[in-house]
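Consider the following assembly input.
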Amino acid sequence: MAQILSPLPGTFYRSPSPGQPAYKNDGDSVAVGDVIGLIEVMKSFHEVKSEVAGSNVRFTADNEEPVMAGAPLADLD
Amino acid sequence: MAVKVISPGLSTSVQDLGRPGYYHLGIPEGGGMDRFATRIANLLVGNEPGAALLEATFMGPELEFTEAATVAVTGGELPPKVNGEERPTWESFPVKAGDRLSFGYLKGGARAYIAISGGIDVPVVLGSRTTYVLGALGGFEGRVLKAGDELPIGTGTGTSGKSLPANLRRPQISPAELRMLPGLYWHRITEAAGKRFFEDTWKVAPEADRIGYRFRGGAPLEFVEREQPFGAGSDPSNIVDACYPYGSIQVPSGTEPIVLHRDAVSGGGYMMLGVVISADMDLIAQLQPHTPAKFAPVTLDQALAARADNAKLMARAEEYLAG
C-alpha cells in the first residue's frame, strides 16, 4: 500500500475551487504527477502532485482539513 | 563558485541578521526570522554569524553546487539530503562539485536555515543582504528564489562534522507560550476580554508569513465603549495612526491577533494590545500553521531578564562552537 503525503502544512482542499468536482474521488486510479488536491498556506494555493502511482485511492484527509507537513492525505493500493 | 536553484521550494529567500536603521522610513529590519538558527548555521560552516544564507519556509529547495563547499542546516527539522542520502541537521557536512542538495518533508518547526561556507555573495543594499520581498529590495533580485537562479557564493573556510548538541539549542515547546508586555492601548479592551485573551489557546492561521503571524480560535475582544477620536477609523479596534513596533500585537476588528515579525509594516491605524518580547520572536518563526500558542503577560523586568537569558543561550552556543 502506498500513501500520498502532504508536502506542506496548511489547509487541504479536494477540488480546484468551491462547487467544482474533486480532483480525484475515492476508488480512482492515480498516476505519478497527478494533482490530487490543493494546500492553502501563506495566502496562496499549491497543487499536491502524487509522487506515487496506484489504484483505488482512499482519502484520509477531509476537504478543508488542517494538515501538517508530511501528514497522510490518501492511501493507494 | 555558484549554487544553481533546481527547484525553489515554497518561499526561499536570502537572509542575514537584517537591515536595522531604516524602519522610520518604512523599511523593516528583516533578516532571518529565527535569529538563533541563522547565527548558528553560519558558525557551523565557518562564516561570520551575520553572513547571508537561505531561509526556507515549510519546504526545502533543491540546489546544485558548481564547486565543493561546507553546508549546515538549522532551525526547523527539514532533513537535508546530498544526492538523495540523508544528512544530519545542526551539523556541517561537505558537498562536492555537481552534488545536489534536497530536502525531505518538514518534521518539526517551520523554517530551515541553509548556510554555505563563504556565504551568499549578493550585493549589500542599505547595509544588508537580506531580501525584503514587499519592497523588492536586497537579497537575490529583491525576491524569493526561482528555478534557474544562480546564487554567487563567497570563498569559505568551513570544516565538516561541526555540530551543536541538542541541549545547547532553544527547546521547542507545544503549545508555544508567547510572553508579551501589555502596552499603551490595553485599556481599550474590557477586563474580561483581557483575561480571556490570555486563557484562550490560539492557533496559527495559514496566512502567517514574514510580515506578520496571524492567530485565530480565541474569543473576539470586547472593547470599552468610547467616541472614536478625530482621525481614527470607525471600528473600535481603530486608533489614530501610530508606529508599529516589531512584535506588536494588533487585533483588527477584535477578532484575529496579528504579531508583526521581521518584515513588519512600520505604522497604521490598529490599536496594539502590547508586544511579544524580543526573547520569544524566534519561537514564532518556528510555528507551523494550525499549531497552538498561548499569550502570557510579563512585566518589563521579566522581559529584560528573558532577553538576558536568551543572550546567554546564544553566548553558550557560540562559545561551544568557538572551542
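Residues 241 and 268 of chain B are 5 Å apart (CA to CA). Ask yourself how this observation constrains the way the partners meet.
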